[in-house]
Design goal:
With about 90 residues, the protein is an alpha+beta fold. It is built from two helices and five strands, in the order E-E-E-E-H-E-H. The chain has a single domain, classed as Aminopeptidase, CATH 3.40.630.30. It is about 25% helix and about 35% strand. Strands 1-2-3-4-5 form a five-stranded mixed beta sheet. A hairpin with a 2-residue loop joins strand 3 and strand 4.
Length: about 90
């Protein structure tokens, strides 16, 4: 299974496709040098297949490359970072 994740044309979400079919998205809101991730959704037929994790990983790698901090207001993003502490340095604040 090939999961492809790309930033949307409008720049307000990362979108995942599996074999060319829409599989999910991770919304984002830019606030200066901070990116807020308020919501992640994976289409039901793709749940439990790593789509959400790939969305988060790609989004956080992009934030790191851009040199910004993030606010994981989405429970899924927050939990993913807790399980992958090497991304904790991206989180804004204490």
């Amino acid at each position: 299974m090939q999961i492809d994740v790309k930033l949307s044309l409008g720049g307000d979400s990362f979108e995942a496709k599996v074999d060319g079919k829409h599989a999910g998205r991770l919304d984002l809101v830019r606030r200066g040098a901070v990116i807020v991730y308020p919501h992640t959704v994976v289409d039901p037929e793709f749940e439990g297949r790593g789509v959400g994790s790939e969305l988060v990983r790609v989004a956080l790698d992009a934030a790191r490359a851009e040199g910004v901090t993030i606010v994981p207001s989405c429970w899924f993003v927050k939990g993913w970072i807790e399980r992958h502490p090497d991304y904790a340095d991206l989180v804004e604040g204490p």
